[in-house]
Amino acid sequence: MKNLYEKWFGPILPKPSIPMAEIVKYVFLTLVPIVFLLSLVGLWYLNRQVKTRTRNLNEEKNKAQKSEKEFQKSEKMFATLFQQAGGYSMVLEPSPSGIPTILDANKAACEAHGFTPDEMIGKPVADLDDEEGRKIMY
């Protein structure tokens, strides 16, 4: 191969000082470690990001669980207070017709009207009145 190069290109071009195989070898030996190091740095960075995001998600999860427990405790306390209140209590929801609907009623309210809680819930409050009260409402 050397003789062919010298025969055809020798008079025109100077002889290459480093063979192409040597150039490829040096480029390969230089680029492989660089790519390897960049890969290691990338993996280290991704691992750090995963740990940070996992920690943040765990903190959010713990806050949500704490809030849920506090909400359940508060809801239980309200339900107990509502049901054990000595007075007549109902939770009403406004309706487009203007006559509120019963969402919940305590024991005293149920006893006063002679209904069970299941019978009262969902009824318009006007249905609890006697005939005279209904005439005033309508």
Quick summary of this structure?
This protein is 66% helix and 7% strand. By secondary structure, it is mainly α.
- Work out the strand percent: 5-15%
By secondary-structure content and strand pairing, the structural class works out as mainly alpha
In spatial order, strands of the major sheet run 1-2
Helix-residue proportion: 55-70%
Give the low-confidence spans.
none
- Order of H and E elements: HHEEHHH
What's the structural domain tally?
2
- Number of beta strands: 2
CA distance, first residue to last residue? 112 Å
Overall shape: rod-shaped
Could you characterize what this model shows?
With about 140 residues, the protein is mostly helical. The chain folds into 2 domains: about 1-85; about 85-138. It contains 5 helices and 2 strands. Strand 1 (about 90-95) and strand 2 (about 100-105) form a beta hairpin. The protein starts with a helix and ends with a helix.
Characteristics:
single chain; 138 residues; mainly alpha; 2 domains; two-stranded antiparallel sheet
Q: What does the secondary structure layout of this molecule look like, with pairings?
A:
Layout: H1 2-9, H2 20-84, E1 90-93, E2 101-105, H3 107-113, H4 117-120, H5 131-137
Antiparallel strand pairs: 1-2
